[in-house]
Amino acid sequence: MAAEGQAPFIRIEGVSKSFGKFTAVNDVSLDIMKGEMFALLGGSGCGKTTLLRMLAGFEQPSSGRIFLDGQDMSGIPPYERPVNMMFQSYALFPHMTVEGNVGYGLKHEKMTAAERTGRVRQMLDLVQLTALAERKPHQLSGGQRQRVALARALAKQPKLLLLDEPLGALDKKLREHTQFEIMNIQERTGITFVVVTHDQEEAMTLADRIAVMDHGEIRQVGAPTEVYEHPSSRFVAGFIGSINMFDGDVKHNGAGLTIAVPSLGSDIVIETGSAQSGDKVTVAVRPEKIMISRDRPECANAFQGVVKDLGYFGKDSLYRVVLPSGTLVSVNSVNTTRGSGSRVAEWDDKVWLSFEPSAAILLRD
Amino acid sequence: MAEETAAGRSWFNRRGWRDLIIGVPYVWLLTFFLLPFVIVFAMSLARRAELSPPIAFLDEWPWIRGDNFARLFSDTLYIRAYLTSIWNAGVATFFCLLIGYPMALGITRVSKSWRNILLMLVILPFWTSFLLRVYAWMGLLGNNSWFNRGLTATINAVIPSEWALKSIPMMNSNFAVVLVMVYSYLPFMILPLYANLEKLDMTLNEAALDLGSRPWQVFKDVTLPLSIPGIIAGGLLVFIPASGELIIPSLVGNASDPMIGRVISDQFSSARDWPMASAVAVALLLLLLLVLPMMVYTYFEGRAQAQGEARP
Amino acid sequence: MKRRPVFLISCLCFGFAFFYIPILSLIVFSFNKSRLVTVWGGFSTQWYGKLFQNDQVIKAAALSIQIAITSATFATILGTMAGIALARFRKFRGRVVFSGLVTAPLIMPEVITGISSLMLFIMMAEWIGWPGSRGFTTITIAHITFSMTYVATIVQSRLSSMDIAIEEAAMDLGARPWRVLTDVTLPVISPAIFAGWLLAFTISLDDVVITNFTSGPGSTTLPILIWSKVRLGVTPDINALATIIITVVGVGVVIAGIIMHRAEARRERDIQMAIAQNG
Description:
The structure holds three protein chains of three kinds.
Chain A: E1 10-19, E2 22-32, E3 37-41, H1 48-56, E4 63-68, E5 71-72, E6 83-86, H2 98-104, H3 113-126, H4 142-154, E7 160-164, H5 172-189, E8 192-197, H6 200-206, E9 209-214, E10 217-222, H7 224-229, H8 234-239, E11 244-253, E12 257-261, E13 266-270, E14 280-285, E15 291-293, E16 301-312, E17 316-322, E18 328-334, E19 350-355, E20 361-363
Chain B: H1 2-43, E1 47-48, E2 55-56, H2 67-74, H3 76-109, H4 112-127, H5 130-141, H6 146-158, H7 174-198, H8 202-210, H9 215-226, H10 228-243, H11 247-252, H12 260-269, H13 274-289, H14 292-310
Helix pairs in contact in B: 2-3, 3-7, 3-10, 4-7, 5-7, 7-10, 8-9, 10-14, 12-13
Chain C: H1 6-29, H2 46-53, H3 55-88, H4 95-107, H5 110-128, H6 136-160, H7 165-172, H8 177-206, H9 209-214, H10 222-230, H11 236-277
Helix pairs in contact in C: 1-11, 2-11, 3-6, 3-8, 4-6, 6-8, 7-8
């Protein structure tokens, strides 16, 4: 992991990119530390892929600069950058063997043939494909092709490795396995990785830090826990995982913050935040932070409702409870006991919902 | 210093090769394809002369004359030839479509292994000499060929004996021209049609059937509309070259009812009236340009269809 | 839903009969003893024997093959460049005109192309003194011009369907644009380039109209020879020549088809194997 207080390894300074009238990336600034596993997370069209391509050198910023290890990358083409990329479609050379693919980048470096062969062997060992060195891409499965793409991108020991939606094409089981493989490889090689993905679970599992992007701008940067538990805006709160949001007015700022929330039918108390009486705010609570019970709980923030929908996922259950005001609240409850009657409530049951003051997030925009 | 050499190298790497790759074929085509047309166009405004080359311009302003083009309208030979050409080409295109469409569709519906064989059988005549294929028909159309005699016998068997024919006059007629044109140009219709039909999504047909359409309705509502770009592509690929055909009408056609290709060639070689030949050619080109909107439509439609498939 | 489409299959049968009956008739009558192509006089191979003794035919065939090889090679080079230009370079000055120039020869009536090419050579002889006489060079130039457009179309289509990411990957791994072309792009599209060469070769070998206009005395190609004879009527020695040509081409196409079929089958097997193993 990166050490604190270091100069950033990659500095993206005020970078914008426009294609004609369309602005794909708008004044983005970002610092990435050496040896970090960094994720760019966002929906399609948010600019993350454009930003990645600018790091690789396939696009030049319309304005702003990118520094890699202190060097300004402006105008430097992709074949002269110490950056390598693992493409979404893997982009393996169909007319070369696995060995040829992995060794291709090394042909452009000053190495002896023996050194090249050695490095290729090393890479193939790293991704466990040594036995398949003589095969051509069409003779490999999807997962194997991906490992070739990874080995090929690592062969030149770049300063920065870019991964474009690395897990998108894999099925669920393979995805989990590969996630950990990628993390292991990153730790072993110590290379800085930047991953682009639209899958927030992927970002949260893989990354040391995440940048959430929307419409060409960065909305929040932080460690996964930071982004999940302390989102800085309604967008980020709603983008990562699911969340319940209630609008309200601040009544009173004392030991805790008292907020009048019409949709919940009563006032609630949350931890002190920087708000004054009269402010209009949004209170956000994650479904797993809300408790559901038959009887009234001892909590300050409690309110009644009726179970409208119920979804069973094996390890947990998702309840959708409708309140007297008509608001729908999502509650996620882990099924900790086996056997019938393990569920807290059934359809049309009257239930009590509650959450701790510390569980709520105060959002403004 | 590193920046200068980097910039210099990168110019050559990026611009230099690029300009070369674009420039060389471009210059070649401009010189050997476009320039000739410019010359022909200029020549169509000249007059015939006893020189070598046998053209000359007027001695004073405006040096050019449009008499050749005027003759196109005054001498009925030309108008008739244009009409014959357009008519023959049109009929040939129609029959190519009529025969070729079911064939192309049929190829898409058979199993994978058969498909390659059938495609090869379609392409095989395409690779053999055009001239020889026309020649093959000459052997069949003649009054004494086995084909003609067999056909005559069949027809004589079904019609009253007073009308019995000695043979069917097929050679040296517009009928022969159209027949041989259909024969020669059929692969040009089948291949683009097949390319289009093959790319169509079969699940659309299944959806239509699921919603209650009968097979022929599915064809009418789903397959046919989506294959229009292929039809137009195949149609143009047949119509345009067919209208200017020279070989087929020369070998099996009627000398007194010539097609425009024949007229151009005759004006050029026997009559030695190069300006007139050029004018006829230019007029033909202008006529063909009328089908340009269709080409543009095909191009954009094809692109839209491809993009529609790319986005899920 | 595996209902055999009877109507379509019968159309196919009719269509293929239409294709091949004339050719078969031609082949059969090449073995006709009698001079009349219409009446069967008995089996004989005399016309084939006469062919091989015919100097004119052999000279013409040699010239045709020479022209075909030369023009196909240059057409492939120029056509590949044009195909790359159209497929890879989105915007350049005069792209629309270029695109039109590459498409036009494909559908232009040959009479017009032939006459205009001839005019060009005559005018060039007037203005700059070259070409002195029309023959091999002028024919080849004309052939290259229209053949290259076929090659360009094939190459452009192949490049469009190729995953462009592999070119970016090569650049990412350190290859300069020229190396990307030679290491990655050209090898991957090489089957298309070869197909283009073959097509250009065949077109050149077969061309009559344009060759007629751009040739001169002493440069008679095989098609021109056949053309002048055929204008006079049907004769069995032409049948023999035709049969030879058709057989050679037919065998070539069949062999090519078999090779491609085998390669495809092998590829399919490899892919199935890879999926089954699922490493």
